[in-house]
Amino acid sequence: MRAQLDEVHHAREVALPACRRAIRASGLAIRAVHLRHHDRWEERIAEARRELEVAQEALRPFPEVSAAGFLHDAEKEVAEAHLCAALVEGEPLPGWDAVGVRLPAWLNGLAEAASEVRRFVLDRLRDGELDGTERLFSAMETTCDMLATVDYPDAITGGLRRSVDALRAVVERTRADLTTTLIQERLQQSLKGGLGKL
Question: Which of 18, 38, 139, 148 has the most CB atoms around it within 10 Å of its CB?
């Protein structure tokens, strides 16, 4: 009995800090995407993937521990870092197998990645770069619409419904911000055109 419990405890003690490191590296990868530092993103995402694999391998024989939640959180963050980069760059989304996570973590990571895109839209609006903002918003909206069709119990999707509800609110705020900015820009252009004729 003690030998078996020792094995489970050891696996948890290996996996938990590895999950924390994977989450930290994923956060730094997302920051690199925001700063448009592609090589730094690649370095951080590789680190996150390595740490996640350590945790997954340690917990593979002990599904009761891997269901505790911390592995799901790490997988979700790694998925978010991958999917955020793809959404921003307009590239095809890598699937959960390609990212190396389970499907519920991928779905929730996608919802959070789409929410992260709001920051890119706002940064571009603030800098007066309207080009590309509508494509980014469309990616957010399409993602939200697609995830809303995944209608399964939370026990299967890892609580996706809450993630989609949060994303929907972010999409609506972004729609309002983008619409206001575009209307102001068109009004300014009209005014400049009218003043030029005087």
Answer: 18
Q: Of 50, 105, 59, nearest to 79 (Cα)? A: 105
Per-residue pLDDT of the chain (198 residues; tens, 9 = 90+): 888 888 989 999 999 999 999 999 999 999 999 888 989 999 999 999 999 999 999 999 998 888 888 999 999 999 999 999 999 999 999 999 999 999 999 999 999 999 999 999 998 888 888 888 999 999 999 999 999 999 999 989 999 999 999 999 999 999 999 999 888 888 887 877 765 554
Measure CA 137 to chain center: 15
Burial class (CB in 10 A: 0-12, 13-18, 19+), 124: middle
d(CA 9, CA 64): 12
DSSP code at position 67:
T
Note if the pTM is more than 0.85: yes
**2-197 is classed CATH 1.10.290.10:** no
HEC-encoded secondary structure of 120-181 = HHHHHHHCCCCCCHHHHHHHHHHHHHHHHCCCCCHHHHCCHHHHHHHHHHHHHHHHHHHHHH
Rounded to whole angstroms, how far apart are CA atoms 100 and 192?
A: 53
